[in-house]
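Q: I'm writing up a methods section and want to include an example of the input and output format. Could you take the sequence below and give the corresponding predicted structure tokens, formatted cleanly so I can copy it straight into the document?
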Amino acid sequence: MVTGATSLGLVRSELFATIEQAEQSLEQFIADRLNVSLLQQAVEYLQQIRGILKLIELAGAELLAQEILLLATDIPAGAGQERDGQLAALGKALFVLRRYLEGIDVHRQEIPELLLPIINELRQSTGQPSLPESYFFSVRLDQPRPQRRNVEIQPGAANRDGARLRQMYQLGLMNVLREQNQSAALKLMSRALGRLDDLLGGRDRSRLCWIGAAALEAMAEARMRPSKARKQLLARIDRDLRQLLANPQFEAPRSLLKEMLYLVALAGTQGERASEMRRVFGLASLPFTDHLLEEESRRLGGPGQEVMRSLSLAIRDELVGVKDMLDLIERGTAQVEGKQALHAQIGKLAKTLDMIGLSSAGNALQNLVAMVGTWSERSDNPPADELLRLADALLYVESMVATLEQSEPRQRAASSQAGGRGEGESYATHQLDEARIVVIDEAQAGLALAKRAITAYLESSGDKLNLANVPTSLQAVRGGLWFLGLERAAELVGACAAYIQTHMIENAQIPSEQMLETLADALTSLEFFLEGGASLRPEGRQDVLDLAADSVRALGMQVAA
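A: Here is the clean output for your methods example:
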């Protein structure tokens, strides 16, 4: 890799000139598809590009050039519209190759993983299977598993609890596939695999669960993006779990284990499970992270979320100027020219908001343009109610502009349509949602405090002082959930509080490890429910509460169906 990045400077001029000639030949062939010589020229230039990249040992770029060449040779002279997709893919691949080589020329570092998405796009167009994320990653999988701690497992526990834990994994998987509440979902899935590993005795048979729990822990802590390949990987784990629980002789495919270890190395986190993987398998730190790959991919492919952030900052700067002028008008110190400038600025800002999809925010300002236009005709201050209307509209616009940095385009469009009910109602709804989020955050903090207290209780061999404030804290969480209308979740939290009070504080004997793990399952499920924005869409997350209720019933506590 170092050799290739260093040697690129020796052939840079010739290589980029050849890429440009290949692009020109391809563009000319697209315009004149009956000209066989143009296509042949493009193929010859691509062969030269591949040869140069092979010579200077740029593995990723060479592989991309090879796939480009294969696709180009697959296109016949006189190609019709059915080949438009492949021709577009060729042009895009050459563009990405050029940008990638430019990056190497500047930074002197090759990251072949950046090219895997475009390589797989080309392979799919020629009917070849996609390459895994770990294609350029190597690791020895035959390392022995270290001695694990002894865990008390009751007879038949694997058969009895295996289905419940796989269901826990599937609940998290569904949220990841829908790209909803991914961090909490990954934590839930990691816990499910970790518990399955314990139930299966922590032997080589459960190697899938052992490594999988570490990979999911690392993905959650690093907030790794849920690409299509990763969603397929997580779904594949679920299918293998079914075979693992049904067949005692089942062994996970080595390719799957390698892919999960790559995710651990890519995340670079310091969690307990991830650290164990790095120690056992000798995983070296990669020279990049998932977030760096995402950022560089945006650079290769064009504008992305960074552009939206820049746009948001620019609009906010305009809003600051508008608010400053509004303040001068309210004080009576603004000149006529300032009022006219305010009128023009609000009209321009309204059109900008409408153009980027924030139609409700744009309409909120557009409805006030005529009113602001009359201010320059007045010698006195505008009426107080008109000033307040503009101030309210600006606050609403600020709240909508904030979504540019946080939401995907479809979510922004949905938010804009919801705002069409009226700026007053939308702003009030936004503020109410903010208040609900505060209550949910407090509830999450209460559940996290309870889990930490239980851990301290175990580590201190049953010191009940660690649990002194837990029932009170959980009852406060219960009250907050009841206030939000989440009565069922409130009941389950109350049941957990009652169990801790009755069986852990008032009882002299420490509950069995299996019962404590079941209690932790219940608290984790409730935490997952809250982290999923439960206060905003509780109707679609009852399956998570069903899982929590199963755990509470396993504790011997009575809860409503």
